[in-house]
Backbone:
């Protein structure tokens, strides 16, 4: 696969009529010296025009992952992504490692990962909007994070292999999950690891829920496995180790509607009379976080 040519083609996406105005916003940002901190909120302190900054940030809506604070502008994102990050944080050490984040959105997680001092951070996400949000934040952060307008299907052809790949909230969007897991496997260097997060259903059997048309109003959810079925998928993909790190239930303090998004959020996706079920009548979203090891040798 010719990734160089693909990059040239995808760079043209940034000129789409709905994206071009966002690029103008970024091109016209003030050049300032900023103090950046990476706690639960990625916080940027600088002397700037707060009225203009608020308008610029609003132009880049909807903001899904965060939160961020730039000057007096607090971007209260739909997802309080710090909850997931803090849940996973005890389970990894990225110092001097080559790290990829698949489906990285606006790179909130990778900004947080900078504190580990990895050798390289590469985000994969074929979204011109999220790439624009990243460029907006990174204008002030000035990190060396590489943002690729590529998907998980390209990682096995990438110019280098990774020590750690994060794949959070992507697997259930793929119609062939085992094929995707194989792509992750091929993207790893020897002894590499994947930190994976996906929906699961309760059960002791090797089975998966196959939603008829949508799950929590999301149309492109194909399979929601039991943990045992997920383990079998991962082993079939070639991984030699499957270790459950954490499980969690998505709650309204983690995902909710704010003024920084458009449309609906978690409360609209669940049964109004029984929050343990989706509006379709399926079990409400639960997440399992696992570490997959490629090879111990």
Residues:
């Amino acid at each position: 696969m010719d990734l160089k040519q693909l990059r040239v083609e995808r760079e043209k996406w940034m000129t789409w009529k709905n994206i071009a105005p966002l690029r103008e916003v970024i091109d016209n940002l003030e050049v300032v010296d900023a103090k950046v901190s990476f706690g639960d909120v990625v916080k940027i302190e600088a002397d700037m025009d707060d009225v203009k900054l608020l308008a610029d940030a609003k132009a880049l809506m909807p903001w899904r992952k965060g939160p961020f604070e730039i000057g007096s502008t607090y971007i209260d994102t739909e997802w309080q992504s710090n909850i997931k990050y803090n849940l996973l944080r005890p389970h990894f050490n990225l110092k001097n490692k080559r790290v990829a984040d698949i489906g990285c959105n606006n790179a909130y997680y990778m900004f947080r990962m900078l504190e580990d001092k990895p050798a390289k951070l590469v985000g994969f996400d074929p979204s011109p909007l999220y790439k624009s949000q990243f460029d907006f934040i990174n204008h002030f952060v000035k990190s060396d994070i590489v943002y690729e307008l590529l998907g998980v299907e390209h990682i096995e052809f990438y110019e280098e292999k990774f020590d750690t790949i994060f794949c959070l909230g992507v697997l259930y969007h793929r119609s062939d999950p085992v094929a995707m897991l194989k792509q992750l496997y091929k993207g790893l260097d020897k002894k590499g690891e994947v930190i994976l997060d996906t929906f699961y259903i309760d059960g002791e059997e090797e089975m998966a829920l196959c939603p008829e048309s949508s799950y929590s109003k999301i149309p492109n959810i194909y399979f929601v496995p039991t943990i045992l079925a997920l383990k079998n998928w991962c082993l079939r993909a070639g991984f030699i180790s499957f270790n459950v790190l954490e499980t969690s239930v998505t709650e309204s303090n983690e995902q909710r509607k704010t003024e920084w998004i458009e449309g609906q959020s978690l409360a609209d996706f669940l049964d109004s009379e029984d929050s343990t079920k989706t509006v379709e009548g399926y079990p409400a979203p639960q997440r399992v976080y696992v570490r997959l090891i490629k090879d111990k040798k």
